[in-house]
Amino acid sequence: DIVMTQSPDSLAVSLGERATINCKSSQSVLYGSNNNNYFAWYQQKPGQPPKLLIYWASIRESGVPDRFSGSGSGTDFTLTISSLQAEDVAVYYCHQYYSTPHTFGQGTKLEIK
Amino acid sequence: QVQLVQSGSELKKPGASVKVSCKASGYTFTSYGLNWVRQAPGQGLEWMGWINTKTGNPTYAQGFTGRFVFSLDTSVSTAYLQITSLEAEDTALYYCARGKQWHDYWGQGTLVTVSS
Hints:
A: 113 residues; mainly beta; globular; B: 7-stranded mixed sheet; 4-stranded antiparallel sheet
């Protein structure tokens, strides 16, 4: 199974500042034949189901604010929130769909400093 | 609009069975795979497997074989998760989520509580 490891486990950032969450996979999720990273990011607020933010590592889902961006390739990925808003307080999960079983990172809790 | 609506919370005794439903609307049900994801209290997301809604073929993650069964009723655009011989450790929120690759729509979750 591909193990997804996020860092940090929790993060406190001031409003308007940049937040960065990292995710490392135990093996590459880059599929050579199409050059796509089989990787996504989700946001989960308390009492809600997860919400898709990013897929193919860097494609923003429709309706997601452009302050959210995804980058990285192979085994190392980053979710960046360029200017933190109060509504961004949540737990963020990375997800690989390169192979079954799909696996998620352990989650990163983002709070306001 | 796309919606996945799950059945309500369940309270079951150890050894009992439960069947959770996930009714899809707003899209062609057989055009997208359907996944099941477990979230234990205060914990992260765990992918249980998925079912091919065209063929009905299920794929289970290790740890979700034997007592867990995915099924479909395509006539009513609904997927089901059945869990038999329930154990206290099965207490969790169970989500259905659309998409064989990334999961773009999620149900609201069904809380299954196993307690004597």
